[in-house]
Amino acid sequence: MPSSADLSRTGRVRLLAVPGLVMVLALVLVPVLALGARTFDSASLFGVWSRPGIVDAIGFTIVETILSTAVTIALGLAPAWALSHHSMPGHRFALAVTTVPFMLPTVVVGAAFLGLLPGSVERGLVAVVIAHAYFNVAVVIRTVAPVWATIDPMLVSAARNLGASRTRAFVSITLPLLKPALYSATAIVGFMCATSYGVVRMLGGGNATLEVEVYRRAILFGDIAGASTLAVVQLLVAAICLLVWTGKDRVVFTNAGHRSRRRDHPVARVVAVIATVVTVIPLVALVLSSMRSRGHWTLAGWRLLTSGSNVPGLRLDLIDVLSRSLLFAVIAAAIAVPIGIATSTVSSSRSTILDRVLLLPLGASAVAVGLGIVITYDSSPFDFRSSWWLTPVVHAVVALPFVIRVIQPVHSRIPEHLRSAAATLGASPLRVWATIDVPLISGAIRTAFGLSLAISLGEFGATSFLTRNDTDTLPIAVEQLLGRSGDLARLAGHAVAVVLLLATLIALAFTTRSRHSWSAS
Questions:
Q1: Which of 115-124, 220-229, 263-272, 311-320 has the lowest mean pLDDT?
Q2: Which pairing describes strands 296-297 and 292-293: parallel, antiparallel, or unpaired?
Q3: CB neighbours of 89 closer than 8 A, spacing ≥ 6?
Q4: Which member of 43, 80, 401, 439 lies 3.0 to 4.6 Å from 145 by CB, making a disulfide possible if both were Cys?
Q5: Average model confidence (pLDDT) for the chain?
Q6: Using CA atoms, how far apart are residues 407 and 446, in angstroms rounded to an integer?
Q7: Burial (Cβ within 10 Å: 0-12, 13-18, ≥19) of residue 256
């Protein structure tokens, strides 16, 4: 039987999860339930499907998801194979660079391809598919390359010695071993493309996915009931897809010793270099687009950005927007990281139900959450829609699952005997935590802080519903500027996107410099 002291300590530990649970329940679960209530209370549950634009949005969502996923998987296999060669010079650099697009704000990716693609295809299905492939190819690399690296090359060599061609050896040996990783990559990429919002808002032109249609219904048409119905249906479909995916075979890693036997390959070097260059080209095009218009070099967009004056036709002070975004990012990180640390103390004890609740923001659509918050907190005594602090708090909720996923694995590996030894020597629980836990998870804390900053800076889905004239953030400014006609607005939009890119890269520098993996031996 546990002692009363143990029970008391367990109760105190569980209390650490309360702030995180309250945030997730108040800003994710309750708004989603409010959407459901609005759907079933309205007469639009079935009537919404006959309204103009709905069928087109469903069709475009299906088409762009299938095409984007297929193109992403096809393009990601070559760099995944190349980067599975750990003995290759520059392996870590190439892996880091090719992963960057997945961490970038979607509006930055959209702005980059607006500057790179020719005018005939810069908006529409082709542009969306290209941007999705650029954004998600890192998922294929990160999922498939580690598995590919563990496949024993002697298996392929044996097949070749028995007369099999390279293609047959790949199909009969390599591909079956890669199937679990490919299934996982396909599921994740498909989910990301189906729930894409920022990329389609930027590059879709007249096309809309279900998420974009939710925004149009709610904000442009005032059809809250119809938007709620679409949001709930999309959440249900996404939940079913995730449940089906979790029922599939997991990625299984074989003996890591095969990595040391995988020789450096000249073709792998070439493929890695090409992948790195292709990753960098859109970002270079973004920078150049902020200084070039109609074949001439100009700094008009940057002068407008640094002058502190409003953009013509828009009440948008870019200096205020920049400082506000940075402030919101710091506030979001200051909320998410301490709550994530406290929650990781509890979740490391394998509280399965708790973990699932805290990870709800990962599976919930940011657009649905934003619309749900607008619907839920729009009347007294919970009329928070006009409160400036609501945006950074929502950003913190979005970042919280990532913070937990970074800190919890490191925290759970701390040997209990270290804490016991400190307690035996008379240290209080708080001092044990400060002297044992914190130093060992400090690298993970820095990584979580950088991720929180980057996520807040780039959050666009929920923010597009919550923003007001005095709470605009950098992603909102980029979308507004690039959605307008005129060279000056376009130049300023690309300049703001460059600033957002630099701010995000600086935030991500925290994650690359941190060593959040440590040896417990």
A1: 311-320
A2: antiparallel
A3: 264, 269
A4: 80
A5: 82
A6: 10
A7: exposed
User: Are 485 and 424 a contacting pair, CB within 8 Å?
Assistant: no
Q: Are 347 and 401 in contact (CB under 8 A)?
A: no
Cβ 508 vs Cβ 103: under 8 Å: yes
- Using DSSP's 3-state secondary structure scheme, residue 42 falls into coil
Query: What CATH number labels 1-21+299-356+385-514?
Result: 1.10.3720.10
pLDDT one-digit tens code per residue, 27-40: 888 888 888 777 76
Produce one character per residue of 33-47: b if its CB has 16 or more CB atoms within 10 Å, e if not.
Answer: ebbbebbeebebbee
- Contacts within 8 Å (CB) and 24+ apart, 158-164: none
Give the count of beta carbons closer than 10 Å to the beta carbon of residue 394: 28
Q: Cβ(136)–Cβ(80) under 8 Å?
A: no
Whether residue 44 is predicted with pLDDT greater than 70 in this model: the reply is no
Exposure string for 356-392, b = 16+ CB within 10 A, e = fewer: ebbbbbebbbbbbbbbbbbbbbeeeeeebbeeeebbb
pLDDT at 242: 63
What stretch(es) of the chain map to CATH 1.10.3720.10? Answer: 1-21+299-356+385-514, 52-289
Q: What is the pLDDT of residue 472?
A: 87
- Mean pLDDT for 126-154 is 91
**Closest to 396 measured CA to CA, from 332, 318, 325, 464:** 332
CATH superfamily ID and name for 52-289: MetI-like (1.10.3720.10)
Produce one character per residue of 61-74: b if its CB has 16 or more CB atoms within 10 Å, e if not: beebbebbbebbbe
Look up tokens 């990783």; give the residue: 181
What span, in angstroms and rounded, lies between the C-alpha atoms of 63 and 158?
A: 41
pLDDT digits (tens, 9 = 90+) for 56-95: 888 999 999 999 999 999 999 999 998 887 667 778 888 8
Least Cα distance to 400 among 337, 352, 353, 462 occurs for 337
Average pLDDT over residues 353-361: 77
How many whole angstroms separate alpha carbon 321 and alpha carbon 330? 14
Question: What pTM was estimated for this model as a whole?
Answer: 0.86
Q: What is the 3-state secondary structure (H, E, C) of 55-88?
A: HHHHHHHHHHHHHHHHHHHHHHHHHHHHCCCCCC
Kindly state the average pLDDT of the residues 331-338.
94
Per-residue burial over 319-346, b if 16 or more Cβ lie within 10 Å, else e, is eebbebbbebbebbbebbbebbbbbbbb
Q: What is the pLDDT of residue 517?
A: 42
